[in-house]
Amino acid sequence: MSSTQFNAGETHGKTQQAQVPLAGENALPRYDEYAYELILKTTALNIDGNSTNREMCAFTYLRMNPDLFHPDNWRRFVAFVKKMKEGKDVHRCWEQVEREAEHFVHVTQPFVQEATVALRH
């Protein structure tokens, strides 16, 4: 269990006691599948392998910068968003989700180019 998962589990316990919803955000600018998978597990509060009736109410993705819009990073990010939308079904392989998300990657290409230029200025 990573320290991130431990902190989320500990925080989740406290929010349950206080009867308030739990939201989260990413802390580091990482664009790899392992980092996205960790976010998926943490937001599902799948800390101990049992996430029944538990999940964060919201998640904010921080660190939008030109690196995010690199073609490979953007493809993984689009797949990550797709997996977040699907909820707790995190068992599908990344390659399959990326293939399904390829249409959105292609459609958003003009936006990606515009965002990259805007973020560099």
UniProtKB/TrEMBL annotation:
InterPro entries according to UniProt: GH, Glyco_hydro_14
Q: What is catalyzed by this enzyme?
A: Hydrolysis of (1->4)-alpha-D-glucosidic linkages in polysaccharides so as to remove successive maltose units from the non-reducing ends of the chains
Organism superkingdom: Eukaryota
GO MF annotation: an example:
beta-amylase activity
- Where are the annotated segments for Disordered? 1-20
Task: Report the EC number(s), separated by commas if there are several.
Answer: 3.2.1.2
Keywords assigned by UniProt, alphabetized: Carbohydrate metabolism, Glycosidase, Hydrolase, Polysaccharide degradation
UniProt xrefs under Gene3D superfamilies: Glycosidases (3.20.20.80)
Q: Does the keyword Hydrolase apply?
A: yes
**What's a single GO BP term from this record?**
polysaccharide catabolic process
The biased composition feature labelled Polar residues covers 1-19
The record's Pfam families line, in alphabetical order, gives:
Glyco_hydro_14 (PF01373)
This protein's record includes keyword Hydrolase: yes
Family in the record: Belongs to the glycosyl hydrolase 14 family.
Q: What is the official name of this protein in its record? A: Beta-amylase
The organism named in the record is Coffea canephora (Robusta coffee)
Classification of source organism: Eukaryota, Viridiplantae, Streptophyta, Embryophyta, Tracheophyta
